[in-house]
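Just scan this pair:

***
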Amino acid sequence: TQEGATRAQDLLRLQLPAVRVQVHHNSQLQSHIDSLLVGINKDLGNAFSFAPFYLHEYLPLDEAPIHRAVVLPVDVVVQGDVGELVATDLGDFACGAVQDCRRRYEDLVDWSKLRQLGLSDRFDSKACVAAHGGLVIDIQRWAKHHIAEQIEEWLVRAHSSGQPPLWRGSDPHAPWLLAIGASSRGDARSRAGSASSTGASARPSHASSRSGEGTASNRDGGFAELKGGWGCEGLASDTMSITEAVVLKRQGLDDTAMNLLRVAPDADGNMQPRVVT
């Protein structure tokens, strides 16, 4: 709400007097995102979990041009120059992220369900996914490529199919990874099906075309690759998913090693403690 945004902004400015703080809100957009999540695993998150994917609508682009946004988790301490991220060449991509080869698309998605829907040829099952901790977004290109609408299509598709979600677990970034994965193979907008055909509403965009050259990129993953030092995935988490544990075993941490580290499932079905290699 406007009242909540104003209160949060006042408190942040009080605590951070030397920092220019702005808090944005859009109640209509928040309600729209909430409506997409109805009937879907509640662990997938809420409207705030998906807010970074709608920055082109949350930010007042009509008042001042904003070309680049850097999204960082709230539980990290920045030890580098964020200006480096702002200046990163994203090439033709709408976003940049650290490549996470602990997980690949085949770990994220139920490939048999994807194949049944005739969608498996839009992805490379062996491609590394993007780590969502530390995300750089080209605002105009994000809108032009309709990334938010594609995310909505995956949410609606999962809801309308009457089947469990295509993705494994409750990662709220799975629909985003599916959206940018599909967009890496040509014009995903025309191949993923229009929003109207799946029930998602088309959304206005502040779009204009820009391009770049020379970026390190993961063409199968649909994102420009940032330097690994910017990776901050799960730094504050004391648990890891079953999928992450399986990947660790592939890397050589067998059952004996896991037992020595006292890794065991917790009450929520995750593995604890978190192991980082």
Summary: The radius of gyration is 19 Å. The chain has a mean pLDDT of 75. Strands lie at 68-71, 95-104, 128-138, 217-218, 223-225, 264-265, 271-272. The chain is about 35% helix and 10% strand.
